[in-house]
Every structure is written in C-alpha cells, then in structure tokens.
Design brief:
By secondary structure, this protein is an alpha+beta fold. Helix content is 43%, strand content 18%. The chain has one domain. A hairpin with a 2-residue loop joins strand 1 and strand 2. The model has no long low-confidence stretch (mean pLDDT 87).
Amino acid sequence: MTLPQELREQYGDQFHIVDVDDGVKLIPVADDPLAALREEFADVDASVAELRRDARGSVGNHGEE
C-alpha cells in the first residue's frame, strides 16, 4: 500500500494495521510511544493498580447496568 506524501508528512510513515469489518484502519505509530502514553495520561491521578482494579471491575459488571 502506498500513501500519498502529504499523508506521510502529516501522520508519519509507521502505522498499526487494524482489520475492521469493512476494510483496514491505519493507526499512526508515535515517534516515541512511551512519551505519547505519558502525554495521554498526564492528567490521570489514579495509580496503575487503581486503574487495573477499576478496569477489571467494569469488565465484570459489563451488561449489568
């Protein structure tokens, strides 16, 4: 697959390819994935243990609301 130069300049040249029902989705890979995660979660005050507990709890309660 070849992407136009303007798209590569805007989003980079590395992507995760995700198979979806009607085709594929290209998700750009950050130049520094760790820095991107830190930036994404900079305003989260919960610890990893709290986030994990909450996520597991919500999976267990899925569909019960």
